[in-house]
Amino acid sequence: MSEGVVTAIITGVFTLIGTIITVIVGLSKANKNIEIVQAVTNTKLDNLTAEVKRHNNFAERLPAVEANIENLDRRIENLEQRVG
Asked: How many whole angstroms separate alpha carbon 36 and alpha carbon 22?
């Protein structure tokens, strides 16, 4: 083999090793970023879930409040009729 071929092979091997190392480091950083984004997303989802639960509790209680208001309105009308 000539010096040029040996030099090309050695250069190619080092280039391949550098490329592999670069890809591995890049994937590692990308995975860390994905984990961070996923953690933020999970936190936001948990907060939204809690808000929905609070809203649902309010939505379940609202008809009972409306029924109580209607009952109070009737009682006030009855009192007004007795007084008036």
From this structure: 21
Please report, to the nearest 10 degrees, the dihedral formed by the alpha carbons of residues 21, 26, 31, 37 taken in order.
Answer: 160
pLDDT digit string (tens) for 18-63?
999 999 999 999 999 999 999 999 999 999 999 999 888 887 888 8
pTM over 0.85: no
DSSP string for residues in the chain: --HHHHHHHHHHHHHHHHHHHHHHHHHHHHHHHHHHHHHHHHHHHHHHHHHHHHHHHHHHHHHHHHHHHHHHHHHHHHHHHHH-
Chain-centroid distance, C-alpha 42: 4
